[in-house]
Write a structure and sequence with these properties.
CATH class of the largest domain: Mainly Beta
Distance between the termini: 40 Å
CATH topology of the largest domain: Jelly Rolls
Shape: elongated
Number of domains: 2
Largest sheet: 6 strands, antiparallel
Structural class: alpha+beta
Order of helices and strands: HEEEEEEHEEEEEEEEHEHEHE
Number of helices: 5
CATH superfamily of the largest domain: Galactose-binding domain-like
Helix content: 10-25%
Radius of gyration: 25 Å
Length: 381
Amino acid sequence: MNKIRLWSGIYSCGLLFAFFSAQAQPRSNTDSIRLVNPSFEDIPKQSSPPLGWADCGFTGESAPDVHPSNFWEVSKPAIHGKTYVGLVVRNNDTWERISQMLESPLQAGQCYHFSIFISTSENYKSRTNVGNNPLLRMQSDSIFNFNIPAVLRIWAGNISCGRSELLAESVPIENVEWKRYDFRLKPKANYNYIMFEAFFKTPVLFPYNGNILLDNASSLQPVPCNQPMEPPKPVAVAPKPKPPVWQAGKDTSKPPPPVVFRPKPKVGEIIKINNLYFKADSDSIPPNSYQALDEIFHYLQDNESLVVEIGGHTNGLPKDDFCDSLSELRAKAVAEYLMRKGIPRERMTYVGYGRRKPIDTNATREGRARNQRVELKILSS
């Protein structure tokens, strides 16, 4: 974790150095205006905007996410670099947006060409903040799929997160593959900030849950206002290699791997979930645990008749009430993750055993680490 913070800090300093170095250079009206971190590169993370971008969302709501790491079931590879940003609109009439200061101002009356790759994810599953809405309170435990088409709005302003002028708006984003969208921007005044905003397709009677994904934004290139829009360049996609066909005596390629025999799970069998970590004294699951939970998901998916109990356990240091509550919340968090992935609720129960079932001593750090665990118990097969 310290190494990640160190590299994150170095990367942030590099972006800021590049930004202020560019500010120090004299610029002409014909120079492109470059964005800081236009490809939204960062460590995949939840509720935190990518480096170089400010969160401009609503108070009490989560910030945009950096993908992909399969949280919210978003796993699409980036079109450029390693990561991209996801913005959502919500059925509680809020939406997400990010902003940054430009290296030089947009000039009034000047036309700019701008392009960005946009797509949507078929799955973007989460809850919403129901607030005081009585209709949404009835669905407070529901997990929604944020998959209704939304639009991208591009705003300009003179303060961070300012929305002085709407420069462009896309069509509703329905493509699940990356597609380049081109815009012609013509501000009516000088502006120092730009903002990208997910918004509802209008007109709309009620707010809804939707998402857009953004990657590989271009510079803002000054162009003559009468110049035709540049057509998008096709994105070359390398064909997937075909697996070799093995035929005895006719092909030198390797034969397919043998099928591994896995015995049918037995009722009462207990399976420990390895490499599952939680933040200290919390039921929050960090991204480095997703791979372990995805393996459990595939295991349950391959054994469709299994019904399991998810049991949470703690070490023996805290008091019973705290251990019981924390272990149950952690077991519940695992169950909810698997439900979001597609395992039916009726195939799982969860329970917190607290510190009542240790498997090692609580006198050592290693023993306490072993006792603090989450397990699957086969209830029926």
